[in-house]
Amino acid sequence: MDFATLLGKQLKNDEVMEILEVFQIDVIYDFDRTHENLPDTYWAGAFKQGFLFRFNEHQVLDTVFLYIKPSEGYTAIDPVDVPYPLYKTFDDAERDFKYVEIPYRASSGAPGTDMYKWWIKADFGAHTRHYQFNEGSLFRLTLSAKDDS
């Protein structure tokens, strides 16, 4: 499934609703309980399929988390269901982005620190792809809309 094409769609969009129904995903309303003027959000997680949708206060899908390795109660997503490169290492991702001239940002940090080669975020126009690494290997890919839709 091309998750990036879902970014910017309303929670009640037919395509989004179909995914929620097919995978029997509940939507959790997360409101500002602390009265800190934080925007409300809506979460829809497919624990067995390894992905999580985040909808903003306007019920617009703005972020998709793809769990490449099991984490936070999610199983790993099947790589066949991910139509984007799944880089084995930070260096592989950086090399590819440089070669294809895709603008990117990366975590800073000296070798041996926790921040060293921890993440790399590439700009694909309407969305970004944020690759996060743990112990040198990819464990999560996050797709985010660039506008506030």
Report on the structure:
Strands 1-2-3-4-8-7-6-5 form an 8-stranded antiparallel β-sheet, with helices on one face. The protein has 2 helices and 8 strands; from the N terminus they run αββββαββββ. It has 149 residues and is an alpha+beta fold. The protein is globular, with a radius of gyration of 16 Å. The chain has one domain. It has helices at 14-22, 90-100; strands spanning 27-30, 41-46, 51-55, 61-67, 104-106, 119-123, 127-134, 137-145. Strand 3 and strand 4 (61-67) form a beta hairpin. Helices cover 13% and strands 32% of the residues.
Tags for this model:
149 residues, alpha+beta, 8-stranded antiparallel beta sheet, 8 strands
Structure in a nutshell:
The chain has 149 residues and is an alpha+beta fold. The protein is 13% helix and 32% strand. It has one domain (3-145).
